[in-house]
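In full, the data.
>
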Amino acid sequence: GGWMLASAGAVRGRRVTGYLPIRDDMVNAGGEWVDAEVVCDGNVITSRTPDDLPAFAREIVGYLDRASVSSSV
């Protein structure tokens, strides 16, 4: 997933995380790589490994909940 974001230019200027072996690719694509289980920068949510899936899922649900509240106002 991280490589797709890097190839699409979606990490440029954003804080991101990912699987450690693609760190250099994320940085070379213009991202600021952070070693964290999940990173949300705007509408881009990244995570590192399957072990981080619970935190990744919580962040996605929270993002969608915040988006739902702001669009209903």
